[in-house]
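# nightly structure sweep
# worker-07 picked up a monomer target from the shared queue
# config: single-sequence mode, recycle default, output format = structure tokens
# input follows
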Amino acid sequence: MNEMVLWRKMGRVVMQLATQLKISPKEALLIFYNSEVGKMMHDPKYGYELMSDTYIVNDIIAELRG
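# output follows
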């Protein structure tokens, strides 16, 4: 996937995460980059770049809940 497209996708995921958790975008960005899902988005073998933003956000929230 084009690197620019991936960065835009990650930005949308972070903003949606902030909205759903009612936190600031900065806090959402920290959560995203500290999550396993956030790390896996950089590796095409997991396929997260092909999944919907909502699916990714839900996976991050599930990870937070343990």
